[in-house]
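ok, trying the design again with the full structure, not the truncated one.
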């Protein structure tokens, strides 16, 4: 039997811009989604030998894009840092882990790339957990490195 090697949790980390660059986890973020998209254009093309027959769809790849959505618990200690990141191009990493029973987990791989934090949404809820959601728009390529 073959089972998938699942990602159990992810950490969103932001680089400090130094050389060598140091990445620090955004404390409170517990869920991370990495979204990669292929931008396409479709058109109908008719066969020249049967011009009365309906055309078939042909897809043209125009480019790729990526975004990260991260959510978790609000953390007042992170608010100043996150506000300073809004609208700024920074290097980010998403580290994907397996919950192997240790305190740190087993690193399975890392996505990395430059992005702009373009949305920070905070929901403060008196009767249940308060939540935060961050959206980052990728600039350039997104790299994947298996651990």
């Amino acid at each position: 039997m073959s089972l998938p090697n699942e990602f159990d949790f992810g950490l969103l980390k932001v680089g400090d811009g130094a050389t060598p660059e140091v990445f620090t986890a955004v404390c409170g973020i517990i869920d991370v989604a990495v979204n990669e998209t292929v931008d396409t254009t479709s058109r109908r093309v008719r066969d020249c030998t049967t011009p009365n027959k309906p055309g078939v769809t042909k897809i043209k790849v125009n480019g790729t894009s990526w975004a990260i959505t991260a959510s978790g618990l609000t953390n007042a200690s992170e608010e100043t840092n996150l506000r300073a990141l809004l609208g700024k191009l920074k290097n980010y990493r998403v580290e994907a882990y397996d919950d192997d029973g240790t305190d740190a987990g087993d690193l399975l791989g890392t996505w990395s790339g430059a992005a702009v934090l373009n949305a920070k949404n905070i929901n403060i809820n008196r009767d249940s957990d308060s939540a935060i959601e961050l959206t980052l728009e990728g600039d350039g390529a997104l790299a994947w490195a298996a651990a």
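Keeping the full-length input from now on. The radius of gyration is 20 Å.
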